[in-house]
């Protein structure tokens, strides 16, 4: 019975995974936009708590790192599920992560510091967690700009090497989150653990071990 179920499920999966990948592509945009829409609604309803700036900063930063992790999860899922069509979800998640990171940084620049560029520069240089976050943002900006096909064609093999910077972005974003909270606060650590697992999957021995078992 189990063999029959497994065989039929595998057949159904192989016949429909291309269709599912096509369906998930627009849904990735819809799902990624939901935190933004919820934030707008909460702002309209005056439901951002006693410190709206801190709440906006926290929400946009958390969403940015979650979407970055989803982007990094595409390669493991592609290998584990033998699902090449899922590759098309990497770019939407990456671009939405950049969008929320931009909102996160804009909150810092506009609402926290009121475009006081000297104070902003001092904060970036003197406060480590801001420096890590700013560096992450620069990497995501570079990857977002070069994510279009025209850059892929012009850069060739260099494009793939450049976009490996997303791994550095994942590490820096995790450190930024850890340093941004008070010592002893555990909230960032589950995110950092998931990020570490996703990055460890890129190691050749790990991929070789997985390939033997799928």
Which terms summarize this structure?
mainly alpha
Overview of this protein structure:
With 214 residues, the protein is mainly alpha-helical. It has one domain (2-211). It is 82% helix and 0% strand. It has helices spanning 2-44, 52-81, 90-112, 117-126, 128-145, 149-155, 157-163, 165-180, 188-200, 204-211. Helix 1 (2-44) runs antiparallel to helix 2 (52-81), helix 2 (52-81) runs parallel beside helix 9 (188-200) and helix 3 (90-112) crosses helix 5. The longest helix is centred in the first third of the chain and has 43 residues, at 2-44. It starts with a helix and ends with a helix.
List the helices and strands and how they pair.
Elements: H1 2-44, H2 52-81, H3 90-112, H4 117-126, H5 128-145, H6 149-155, H7 157-163, H8 165-180, H9 188-200, H10 204-211
In short:
By secondary structure, the chain is mostly helical. The chain has one domain (2-211).
Class based on secondary structure composition and strand pairing: mainly alpha
Summarize the biggest pleated sheet. Answer: none
Give the count of structural domains. Answer: 1
**Number of extended strands:** 0
The topology string of helices and strands comes to HHHHHHHHHH
Mean pLDDT: 92
Radius of gyration: 20 Å
Count of helices?
10
Shape: globular
Determine the strand fraction and express it as a percent band.
under 5%
Straight-line distance between termini: 21 Å
The parts where pLDDT drops under 50 for at least 5 residues are: none
The percentage helix is over 70%
């Amino acid at each position: 019975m189990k063999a029959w179920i497994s065989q039929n499920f595998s057949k159904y999966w192989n016949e429909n995974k291309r269709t599912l990948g096509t369906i998930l592509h627009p849904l990735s945009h819809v799902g990624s936009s939901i935190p933004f829409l919820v934030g707008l609604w909460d702002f309209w309803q005056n439901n951002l708590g006693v410190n709206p700036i801190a709440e906006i900063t926290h929400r946009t930063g958390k969403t940015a790192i979650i979407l970055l992790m989803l982007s990094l999860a595409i390669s493991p899922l592609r290998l584990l599920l033998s699902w090449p069509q899922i590759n098309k979800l990497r770019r939407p998640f990456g671009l939405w992560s950049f969008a929320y990171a931009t909102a996160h940084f804009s909150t810092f620049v506009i609402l926290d510091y009121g475009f006081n560029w000297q104070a902003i520069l001092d904060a970036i240089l003197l406060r480590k967690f801001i420096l890590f976050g700013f560096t992450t943002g620069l990497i995501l900006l570079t990857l977002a700009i070069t994510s279009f096909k025209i850059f892929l064609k012009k850069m060739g093999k260099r494009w793939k090497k450049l976009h490996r910077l997303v791994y550095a972005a994942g590490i820096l974003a995790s450190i930024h989150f850890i340093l941004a909270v008070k010592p002893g606060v555990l909230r960032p650590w589950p995110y950092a653990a998931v990020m570490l697992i996703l990055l460890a999957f890129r190691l050749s021995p790990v991929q070789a071990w997985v390939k033997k078992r799928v």
